[in-house]
Hints:
Blueprint: H1 29-36, E1 44-47, E2 50-55, E3 58-61, H2 69-124
Antiparallel strand pairs: 1-2, 2-3
Amino acid sequence: MPLFGNTFSPKKTPPRKSASLSNLHTLDRSTREIELGLEYGAPVMNIGGQSLKFEEGQWITESGGNVSGKELQRLKKRNQQLEEENNLLKLKVDLLLDMLSETTAETHLIHKELEEVKNHTRRKK
């Protein structure tokens, strides 16, 4: 009586056929047109009182507020552009202030050296 000689080897099960969860493929064309309509249009859904419509790869709100969804997206994009421009201008102002500080320091050094040269030439006279 072997201790490990009798190994368990179940038969391999055949792969399952994938069944579609949708029964639309079983309907004929006329029934699909009646059920779904001729023009499917853009997908629309309501979540929390907000109506959303899928257009051009993005969900756009259709209801609420005085501004339309497209206008809101345009304003958000414009706001982002203005923020980026504002950051660039802040950087340029900082750079100009640094340049001004450096030039002012150099000017003060030149004036100081000039005063020293004037005082030195007066003493020799």
